[in-house]
Amino acid sequence: MKKTVFNLETIFSEICTSSTPYEWDENHVSFLLMKELRKLFSRRVISFNSWSKIVDWHSFKNKGKQETNYGDIALIVSVQFTSGEILKGIACIEAKRSYQSGNFESTSIAQLDRIFTKLPYSHLLLYNQNKQSLQQKFPDESTWSSHFWISPINTARQLLTQISPGDNWKILRTSFPFSMFLTARIFWGIDLDFREEILNDILSGENKIIDPSFLGIVNVYYDHQKPINSILTDKWEEI
Questions:
Q1: pLDDT for the residue 141
Q2: What top-level branch of life does the organism fall under (predicted)?
């Protein structure tokens, strides 16, 4: 697991280095991120003390016109347990980049309110040009350094109502590392939206609720199991 986290943080650093200053926008960074996550988690075996799990990731780009802007990235996540239980849900992620000021200037309470109304379990992914070293909430007093941090949108919007737009970098205080979000939460079925209407909206291509720019199909399973297939419409191009 430590090696996987190290690889993730290396990927995040390389994306930021290669994207600044001329290609530092959310769409470009998200494209590179999804491409690299597909490479890293191509049937990747993650080992623990005496057992292991497989993570298999496929990434897609939306070829169609996006009618509603409710998030840059959606993940369809299927987590299988040894005794046969399955958790299948959606992670919805709205990405925002930092500016020279250090703030996330394209972030607005109005937009987060619109997202929260439809997708209350969604998250705000914060791309930082410079690494941010923030206090760990667990298990000790150490700090963690990363370019990519993530916060529940419900929490971020509550904090944003109490700070000025010129200080919205403070939403980093409610965030935790994106590498932790993936390895300690998403890959275990935590922080997912399990509503069938959200899953069907993506799979059918209707996009009445969410129309993400990028989509990840993520399967987490044991070596005696098979990944769960998700059939997509032709609006999705694999990357």
A1: 85
A2: Bacteria
